[in-house]
Amino acid sequence: MAPVPIFPIKVGHIDDVQELRKTKPTTIPERYVRDQTERPTLATTLLSSSSSPTDDIHIPIINLSKLMKANNNTTTADEFHTEIVNLTTACQEWGFFQVVNHGIDLSLLESIEMVAKDFFMLPLEEKQKYPMAPGTVQGYGQAFVFSENQKLDWCNMFALGVEPHYIRNPKLWPSKPADFSETLESYSREVRKLCQNLLRYIAVSLGLKEDVFEEMFGVAVQAVRMNYYPPCSRPDLVMGLSPHSDGSALTILQQGKGSSVGLQILKDNTWVPVQPIPNALVINIGDTIEVLSNGKYKSVEHRAVTHKEKDRLSIVTFYAPSYEIEIGPMTELVDDVNNPCKYRRYNHGEYSKYYVTNKLQGKKTLDFAKIQVTNSS
């Protein structure tokens, strides 16, 4: 969520999808209709139905209390080791997992969901007081739009920089709902602690000392984005959110209660739906961890699909290193013979700027950091 300079970008007319749903419930404007190759196929839209045979495919579940209690000697060494092995598998083979017993008060999860939903249900004129300017990623609207003919996602977004304070744009923090700012502050504080704890155990799973990321990251950057996906009469033609990987170190996703199943991750060239577990949070590894782990843990492409009758709300927190620091593979994870260096060192702020000024397109933005291997023959 790096602050980026506003440069002249023509994005053309962008319909607000909630308003479309209200006034023209069966109309899908051309800008939302995906090219044939980009459409969610019937098979992948069926993945979201409860009768789907893929219901047996579940992303890993990590019980954070089994890791946390090790510090209080209430978890045995065996239990701790088993959960670290589970975490390693989740990061290495999936890039995604759901975390249970995460320590965040469930009433706080309900509160943030309520204020987010209340915000999206405000009249359009009220939400438009907080516009997302073209080329930026804070405010209300559609992010990652850079041309007049670019296909749009069937989604309304509201995004805010949270930490450090200098990335905030106070004019974009809404006055309605009245408890929005206070709830977001409390929620973000708790999610920040969760990210710090998860990064400790991810470091341990990589064979590194547990505070290595916290020491390296400096004052970590944190941002939140709320996504609202109205129902869509033709979910087979549109994309809720384009396929992409995240530029952060970690992304924490809260899926709204009663929402349709919309999140899908790319696993073995198949789009797998993430079935929500009550009170769990979905965690995914971002590009930054892929680089630091020298590719041992990979950021994974994911997308959102829409539903014909149900809406969907998600609240996403991005947690990343300070913009000032340099990122590159950890020397302990580079071996010239068996695991040569796959990524160059780069300034994290520079990468963040590159990420937010390019449209979402799979893992293409990570090419920024990849060392290109050339054949010497």
From TrEMBL:
<keyword id="KW-0479">Metal-binding</keyword>
<protein>
    <recommendedName>
        <fullName>Fe2OG dioxygenase domain-containing protein</fullName>
    </recommendedName>
</protein>
<keyword id="KW-0408">Iron</keyword>
<dbReference type="InterPro" id="IPR027443">
    <property type="entry name" value="IPNS-like_sf"/>
</dbReference>
<dbReference type="GO" id="GO:0016491">
    <property type="term" value="F:oxidoreductase activity"/>
</dbReference>
<dbReference type="GO" id="GO:0046872">
    <property type="term" value="F:metal ion binding"/>
</dbReference>
<dbReference type="InterPro" id="IPR050295">
    <property type="entry name" value="Plant_2OG-oxidoreductases"/>
</dbReference>
<dbReference type="Pfam" id="PF03171">
    <property type="entry name" value="2OG-FeII_Oxy"/>
</dbReference>
<dbReference type="InterPro" id="IPR044861">
    <property type="entry name" value="IPNS-like_FE2OG_OXY"/>
</dbReference>
<keyword id="KW-0560">Oxidoreductase</keyword>
<dbReference type="InterPro" id="IPR005123">
    <property type="entry name" value="Oxoglu/Fe-dep_dioxygenase_dom"/>
</dbReference>
<dbReference type="InterPro" id="IPR026992">
    <property type="entry name" value="DIOX_N"/>
</dbReference>
<comment type="similarity">
    <text>Belongs to the iron/ascorbate-dependent oxidoreductase family.</text>
</comment>
<feature type="domain" description="Fe2OG dioxygenase">
    <location>
        <begin position="220"/>
        <end position="321"/>
    </location>
</feature>
<dbReference type="Pfam" id="PF14226">
    <property type="entry name" value="DIOX_N"/>
</dbReference>
